[in-house]
Automatic annotation (TrEMBL):
Keywords from the UniProt entry: Membrane, Transmembrane, Transmembrane helix
Signal peptide: none
Name of this chain's protein: Flp pilus assembly protein TadB
Transmembrane region(s): 31-49, 55-75, 206-224, 230-252, 294-326, 462-487
Domain of life: Bacteria
UniProt keyword annotation of ATP-binding present: no
Keyword field contains Transmembrane: yes
Length: 494
């Protein structure tokens, strides 16, 4: 799908329609206030940097181009925060109501009484009416819950819905499993709240870095005056516009990265499945031959260079490069394996949770087979192989032992042992064992999502460093101009 240009939001109608998706009414009055603030901001920068009118206008135009995205991101940020709070409250109330009443309809009726106004209340009412009055559907409860699932687009809510549908069909006491799901929700809510605080801290630090950059770069215009005044020079003025425009761009880009949904499903487009295949099918002997060929070519080139130039540096560099090429296949394999192992650590708990919920109605082998449809890319090939092995040896423990064994992840191996116990009928109380599986998975998911959050925060911190590079650029230009002016004045004085 072709990505639409952000410039389309310069049209008032397009911007209004986009903001309406997030429940915000953008009026002409609000638009005039926004553009008035842009003019004021341009005037303030113009006065501070002693800019000519044309350069003040250039800053105003840049601000005008960026203003729709800033407005959208502010409203989206509020919307995503509200949706997270709403989803968290819904999951808590719905699980509590289902635990008390035991049916989807009763749980929805009780939940609708809590959320008694707004768009979400309307969705709940439609879901309830669908269950009560639909006569031509085989599964009205599932369809009703899908309406709510589509409203949130949250994997956790979908998992809870899958669980309650299965529990209602199966019957029996599910209070233990619901307690563990509630614990999982609470841990998730705490992680997201912590991530929100981290993102706010990063945003604050980026803003401080940008403001500090703009203030520091003003100093050369005021510290030196008289004959050393450079503020009226065209290069000084143009570099100021570049600096201010770049600071705006960094703010908009970083804000876009920080403005994210806290609940929506994330699409997996990393291509990690291909890397898993690359690691799985690694042939060291074959790759070593390729490395030797490359190393021989490099050795010939460096030996020729050393004999021609008689330079010891060429020999030393050549030895290092040749050794690297001889071992590049091992280095590449180890890096790929580490990346796959980290992705498995993140994604395995999500898959395990789905299996645990499927176990409410299916046996282990059927649950694993069904889980393939929604499995993470990094686990897909290993799961297909596991299913094939279980079809050949359904009662053997070996397929469970061999699953991702090469990655030596104790959490994975421990979970697979529990699944084997359930499949072989040696687990004793099956309900208790499933609850233990969910409880163990809660800890795994907490660990995995903390790793994912660390990656997101680390990726944002680069924006804190960019303003210092801009400041260096501007100060270098100004110092160069000061030097030119100083030398000219020195010549005139002689």
């Amino acid at each position: 799908m072709k990505k639409k240009s952000a410039l389309r939001y310069l049209r008032y109608k397009n911007l209004t329609n986009e903001l309406a998706k997030y429940g915000y009414e953008y009026t002409l009055k609000k638009a005039f206030i926004t553009y008035g603030m842009i003019v004021l901001m341009a005037a303030i920068f113009g006065l501070l940097y002693k800019l000519e009118l044309k350069y003040i206008a250039a800053i105003g135009i840049i601000g005008f181009l960026f203003s729709p995205m800033v407005t959208i991101q502010i409203i989206k940020g509020r919307y995503h925060t509200t949706m997270f709070s709403l989803a968290n409250s819904y999951m808590e109330q719905f699980l509590y109501s289902f635990k008390r009443n035991g049916t989807v309809l009763s749980a929805l009726l009780e939940t609708a009484a809590i959320f008694d106004e707004g768009m979400f209340h309307d969705i709940l009412e439609k879901s309830i009416e669908h269950i009560q009055y639909t006569t031509d559907s085989e599964d009205p409860e599932r369809e009703a819950l899908n309406m709510i699932g589509e409203f949130f687009n949250c994997e956790r809510i979908d998992n809870i819905h899958d669980f309650v549908i299965a529990a209602q069909r199966r019957g029996g006491d599910v209070s233990g499993s619901i307690t563990l799901l509630t614990k999982n929700r609470a841990m998730w809510a705490e992680r997201v709240s912590n991530l929100q605080k981290e993102f706010q801290l990063v945003k604050r630090n980026i803003t401080i870095a940008l403001v500090a950059t703009l203030l520091i770069c003003i100093l050369p215009l005021y510290l030196l005056g008289g004959k050393l005044n450079i503020s009226s020079m065209q290069l000084c003025q143009m570099s100021a516009v570049v600096l201010i425009g770049s600071c705006m761009l960094i703010y908009v880009k970083s804000d876009k990265k920080l403005c994210r949904s806290w609940i929506e499903k994330e699409t997996n487009s990393t291509g990690i499945g291909k890397k898993y295949i690359q690691v799985r099918d690694y042939d060291e002997a074959k790759e070593a031959k390729v490395s030797k060929k490359i190393a021989v070519i490099a050795a010939v080139l460096f030996i020729s260079g050393f004999l021609y130039f008689k330079n010891i540096v060429i020999a030393v560099v050549g030895i290092v490069v040749v050794l690297f090429f001889l071992n590049q296949h091992k280095i590449g394999h180890n890096l790929a394996k580490k990346k796959v192992a980290k992705e498995i650590e993140k994604q395995f708990p999500n898959w395990l949770m789905e299996v645990a919920l499927l176990l409410q109605t299916d046996n282990v082998q059927v649950a694993i087979r069904k889980s393939i449809d929604n499995s993470p890319e990094v686990l897909l090939y290993a799961l297909e192989n596991l299913v094939d092995e279980l079809e050949e040896n359904p009662n053997s423990i070996e397929p469970y032992h061999r699953f991702l064994k090469e990655y030596r992840n104790p959490d994975v191996q421990s979970a697979m042992k529990i699944l084997y116990s359930l499949s072989s009928g040696n687990a004793g109380d099956v309900t208790k064992q499933v609850e233990e599986l969910i409880d163990r998975n809660n800890a795994l998911m907490d660990k995995a999502e903390k790793l994912s959050q660390e990656d997101k925060i680390a990726g944002m911190k680069v924006y804190i460093l960019l303003p210092s590079l801009l400041a260096s650029f501007k100060l270098m230009v100004d110092m160069s101009l000061l030097l030119v002016v100083f030398l000219k004045n020195l010549n005139f004085g002689m």
